[in-house]
Specification:
- The protein is an alpha/beta fold.
- The chain folds into four domains: 127 residues, 3-Layer(aba) Sandwich (Rossmann fold), CATH 3.40.50; 157 residues, Nucleotide cyclase, GGDEF domain (Alpha-Beta Plaits, 2-Layer Sandwich); 92 residues; 84 residues, Homeodomain-like (Arc Repressor Mutant, subunit A).
- Strands 2-1-3-4-5 form a five-stranded parallel sheet. The chain has a five-stranded mixed sheet with strand order 7-8-6-9-10, with helices on both faces.
- A hairpin with a 3-residue loop joins strand 7 and strand 8.
- Helix 2 packs parallel to helix 3 and helix 13 packs parallel to helix 15.
- It is flat.
- The two termini are 58 Å apart.
- About 1% of the residues have low confidence.
- GO terms for molecular function: DNA-binding transcription factor activity; sequence-specific DNA binding.
- It holds the Pfam family HTH_18.
- Keywords: DNA-binding, Phosphoprotein, Transcription, Transcription regulation.
Length: 522
């Protein structure tokens, strides 16, 4: 990884030092040698060096003069001086060189290897620092290009600091990945920032493996932005539409665990025009509300037609509810869904307003019919509708509302969603497959709807309650049995013992073993 240059006019000393140098792929991998400062400088001029181990007094050019010249070539080069007792006064002039170490002659093997180990560590820090700065500059450039054309001065500085040139952007396009918060986002194991970081790493790896030049940055709270660039022999426009679609599909499948949309902007011909590609992709994102989670779309496919539910259709749906015709009502809801899906140019806010009209009437109707606020959602209906990320979620909400409404009207009873959820958790807490999707399948309610209702009724999340109940049962087993902690972890439904320990400590304030010691006498 790093190149060491050993410079000493005494051949036996020089060769002896080289034999003692530990070489390894992650440390010093190349060792060069020179007989004096002049030869050492000549070598450094055609072969970059990371570490210089040099004698001070040498003919033709001394070590200090040579290192001064090498530092002009490689400012971060690490310098280690060799010195005899008589060189101590001479070495004072080398203080300005900020040498990492001074090793006395004759050279002690331990001192040499310790100095070289420190040098490698310093080189690692420099490399990491350079990488961090380079990545920060690349992100800064990626974000700068999203706004209206930057000034020539801003652009020139940003290009230079990121290591890019104007020519890299003469043929480029922008892609937006919009990641969607989960239904129980406040209680996720990983924060949303961590999710973006993980996805950024996965996406970057796939693109690097394709040998495509690109910039990537997070933007706002849930976007990853990619700018694809050109090289002298590979223009962005030379790749087919199918290539970009297949690449985005490969990335989408890799990140499928994190719900998202992918919008591909048009190709532009300069860095000043990148914002046009970005804006087109951003506007196009709204159409993906109608196509569903993890869908991909090109901005040039942006439709303009729109749809709105007619008063006649709304009245017809109301009549099916009034007549108790549930299946007919669902058929009409399906027709409504297909109408919106075939008109992706409809503004999302308009679509949600249409469903709000239907559901707000439904809540009032059921309340009047049963004499109680069975659905218990009137005050936060718009919040529930607004939280829908896709038309699929909106339809699912509506089906759930209609199903509950028919049940309430027929039975005249009021049921609490949170009680049903808690009872299902209590009955199944030992099952490691118990999660929100499990509850959704059992209760025949959508994941988003379940999470929203539970939060509204209890003020907590389903995941939090699930963990609290499992830890409560674990405490009982810790105090009342001699079972191993690993067995208890399995018994209360944790598939991962490390996650069990982490969750236990978070909720109980101590580890399972400490809890047992504190609560078991003798």
């Amino acid at each position: 990884m790093y190149t060491l240059l050993v410079v000493d006019d005494e051949m036996f000393t020089r060769k002896g030092i080289i034999k003692k140098v530990p070489t390894e792929p992650d440390g010093i991998s190349v060792v060069l040698e020179a007989r004096d400062g002049k030869e050492g400088l000549a070598i450094a001029q055609y072969s970059p060096v990371d570490i210089v181990l040099s004698d001070v007094r040498m003919p033709r050019m001394d070590g200090i003069k040579m290192c001064q010249e090498i530092r002009r070539l490689y400012p971060d080069c690490v310098i280690i001086f060799l010195s005899g007792y008589s060189d101590k006064e001479y070495l004072r002039s080398a203080i300005s060189m900020q040498a990492l170490q001074y090793i006395d002659k004759p050279v002690d093997t331990g001192a040499l290897q310790e100095a070289l180990s420190q040098a490698v560590s310093y080189c690692n820090e420099i490399r990491y620092s350079r990488k961090f700065v380079r990545e920060a500059n690349r992100k800064r450039l990626a974000r700068l290009l999203l706004s209206s054309p930057p000034s020539n001065g801003q652009l020139a500085v940003a290009l230079s600091e990121s290591g890019h040139t104007y020519e890299d952007f003469r043929d480029s396009l922008t892609v937006i990945f919009q990641f969607l918060p989960g239904p129980d986002a406040s209680d996720e194991k990983l924060g949303f920032h961590d999710t973006l970081e993980q996805c950024q790493e996965m996406i970057s790896e796939i693109i690097r493996n394709k040998h495509l030049p690109f910039l990537i940055t997070d933007y706002r709270e849930n976007h990853l932005i990619l700018h694809f660039l050109s090289t002298p022999d590979r223009m962005v426009s030379s790749f087919s539409r199918a290539f970009w679609e297949n690449l985005m599909r490969e990335i989408s499948e890799k990140t499928a665990a994190y719900p998202h949309f992918v919008s591909i902007g048009p190709i532009v011909s300069s860095p000043e025009e990148i914002y046009r590609s970005y804006n087109a992709a951003a506007i196009n994102l709204q159409t993906l509300f109608y196509t569903g989670i993890n869908s991909i779309s090109f901005a040039d496919e942006m439709p303009t037609d729109s749809y709105s539910m007619s008063q006649e259709l709304l009245d017809a749906i109301k009549q099916t509810i009034h007549n108790g015709e549930q299946e007919k009502c669902f058929r009409m809801l399906k027709e409504l869904e297909e109408s919106f899906r075939s008109h992706p140019g409809t503004l999302i806010s308009n679509t949600k307003e249409n469903f709000y009209r239907l559901l707000s009437w439904l809540i009032s109707y059921v309340k009047n019919k049963t004499g109680s606020d069975v659905l218990d959602t009137e005050n936060y209906l718009w919040e529930l509708i607004f939280s829908a990320n896709t038309l699929d979620e909106l339809i699912s909400f509506t089906r759930n509302y209609i199903s509950l409404s028919f049940d309430a009207i027929q039975s005249g009873r009021e049921a609490s969603a949170s009680v049903l959820i808690k009872n299902t958790i209590i009955d199944n807490y030992q099952n490691p497959d118990l999660d929100i999707q499990f509850l959704s399948d059992r209760l025949n309610l959508s994941v988003s709807y379940l999470s929203f209702l539970f939060k509204q009724e209890t003020g907590s999340t389903i995941n939090h309650y699930m963990n609290e109940y499992r830890i409560w049962k674990a405490k009982e087993l810790l105090v009342n049995t001699n079972r191993k902690i690993a067995d208890i972890s399995d018994a209360v439904g944790f598939a991962n013992q490390n996650y069990f320990a982490k969750t236990f400590k978070k909720l109980a304030g101590c580890s399972p073993s400490v809890y047992r010691d504190l609560h078991v006498e003798g």
